Amino acid sequence: MTLLSDTEKNMKKTVEVVNKEFASLRAGRATPALLDKIMVTYYGTPTPINQLANITTPEARLLVIQPWDKTAMPEIEKAILKSDLGITPASDGNIIRLAVPQLTKERRAELVKVIKKKAEEGRVAVRNLRRDANDGLKSQQKNGDISEDELRRLQDEVQKLTDKYIKEIDALFAAKEKEILTV
């Protein structure tokens, strides 16, 4: 049934989006994913940092950005300063260092609220996909394409998919919450 496979594919994508959102949040450790959302104006075009430079993590709390084009360094620094990271870049002319500070208790609580909100948005998106799938199934039944028994069986399948992907989002949330609260 194509409706079921499309619904499952979209639910998977929703979980991937939630996972990416979580990865871009700072949990006291330096990861290149922190810079994923930062766009640099490079020759008038907004470009992701990872397309302009090599990003490495030599230490747990340090990111090193090595631009391939040295003329892009001031723009990269400007973009990092404008971002909501709250980290000041240190440049020596060849590379940019970002020291990720230790999170305060208040900041940890704030981050947990943010990931809770993102997880709930993901759950809502999965539930909306369930609703759309069930509406599609009901219209197929009205058109006489499927029987009432088939409708119930397929709705059960959709519910199983919904439960599965909401559990995945909950697991991602629990893991990220643990990572944030670990001092």
From TrEMBL:
Statement: the UniProt record of this protein carries the keyword DNA repair: no
Job description of the protein: Responsible for the release of ribosomes from messenger RNA at the termination of protein biosynthesis. May increase the efficiency of translation by recycling ribosomes from one round of translation to another.
Protein name: Ribosome-recycling factor
Any coiled-coil regions, as ranges: 137-171
Gene Ontology CC annotation, any one: cytoplasm
Pfam families according to UniProt: RRF (PF01765)
The family this protein is said to belong to: Belongs to the RRF family.
GO BP terms: translational termination
InterPro entries reported in the protein's UniProt record: Ribosome_recyc_fac, Ribosome_recyc_fac_dom, RRF_sf
Subcellular location field: Cytoplasm
This protein's UniProt keywords: Coiled coil, Cytoplasm, Protein biosynthesis
Domain Ribosome recycling factor positions: 19-181
MF terms in GO: ribosomal large subunit binding
